[in-house]
Amino acid sequence: MVNSSILPPVDAAPARRAAPRSGYAVAAVVDAVLLFLLDVWPGWDVVPILSPAFADVLAAVNAAIVVNLVVHTVSALVPSPRVRALGQLLLCVVGVAVGLLLLRVYPFSVSGLWIALITALLWLGVVGSAVGGVVAAVQFVIGRDPKARRA
What is the Cα–Cα distance from 45 to 26, expressed in whole angstroms? Predict the structure, then answer.
């Protein structure tokens, strides 16, 4: 058995700081994969619940994914609470805009209860993004990570 009282204390702060940054890098890779799957192979048109009207919103969906990719990449490279908050605010604004566009065009080939479910989920996303935008704006003004501990 090892006597832990003789071991030097381990500073876990670098690991805690690196975890969110690596999470943003993983998110950026996922965004790039989504763009590839949506536009290149197999493409959006093989998804059975998407109607041909999805072509009308494809540019907006692609733009939202690209904004996500850029924000996640910048957040991984620049560990600043203000930069992260500004990125989150941008993501929320784009999320509200694309969510409302999807509600207006409704490019889904579903019927029955699925219409209500998809509509409810889209509205949940719009409202959640709006609330998230307010939170991100406050975090940007404050300039401090709310998860940071006060000394």
Answer: 26
